[in-house]
Amino acid sequence: MAGGAATLLLIVLATPALIRWAKAERTVSLDQVRLAKVTRGTFVRDVSVDGQTVAAVSPTLYSDVNGTVTLKAVAGDTVKKGQVLALIDSPELSSSYQQEQSTFLSMQTDLERTRINSKKAALASQETVDQAGVTLEAAKREMKRAEAAWGYHVISEHDYAKAKDDLAAAQLNYDNAKANTDLDKEGLNFDVRSKQQQVQREQLLVADLKRRHDNLTMRSPVDGMVGNIAVNSAPMSPPTRR
User: Fold this and answer.
1) Alpha carbon distance 33, 28 (integer Å)
2) Tell me: the pLDDT tens digits for 25-48?
3) Long-range Cβ contacts of 77-81 (<8 Å, 24+ apart)
4) Between 20 and 30 A from 118 (CA), which of 94, 178, 181, 201?
């Protein structure tokens, strides 16, 4: 009875394994199976997240003029090179730029007027020299006739002396007229150069004001995306005219 009970118990215990073995489609040898002990460790898993790429080159735009800022783009906008990002309204700078432009045009007109007056004065001075030259040539001819007549003793000594005096006076008048003409040309050229220098100084001032006025329109220097927008103000002194 004990042996029968043991046999019955063995059958009961082996029945599940026999059932699994019967259902298996393929068996594998134990030497082909790698076994390892399961231990507690760090659990690793993949995580998907959204991020933003920040450009290594991030130009900062600024203006050296205070004014009212009107933004044409916000943070996160995609912009193209040359696209307007902001407009700055500076009445003081705009007024100074317009005034200096008007002054520059007026000085250019004054320079042209000075050149015209210089040419007129030069012509008038040259005319005086030409007239003195004609008088000198006439005195020289008269002196030649007087010398020929004096050789034949057909004129008086008084007339001969008068011809010599007239020639000397004509020569002196011509020399003085020519010297005055040279001085007048130097003075006129000096006036023209002085006006030119004034126009050049004014032109440089207008060019600087134009550059600052153009900077009131802030444009994107590159293709990209607008990052942060921070409007800061600092007191600026108005441009002085020198």
Assistant:
1) 8
2) 666 777 888 888 888 888 878 777
3) 77/225, 77/226, 78/224, 78/225, 78/226, 79/220, 79/223, 79/224, 79/225, 79/226, 80/220, 80/223, 81/220, 81/221, 81/222, 81/223
4) 201
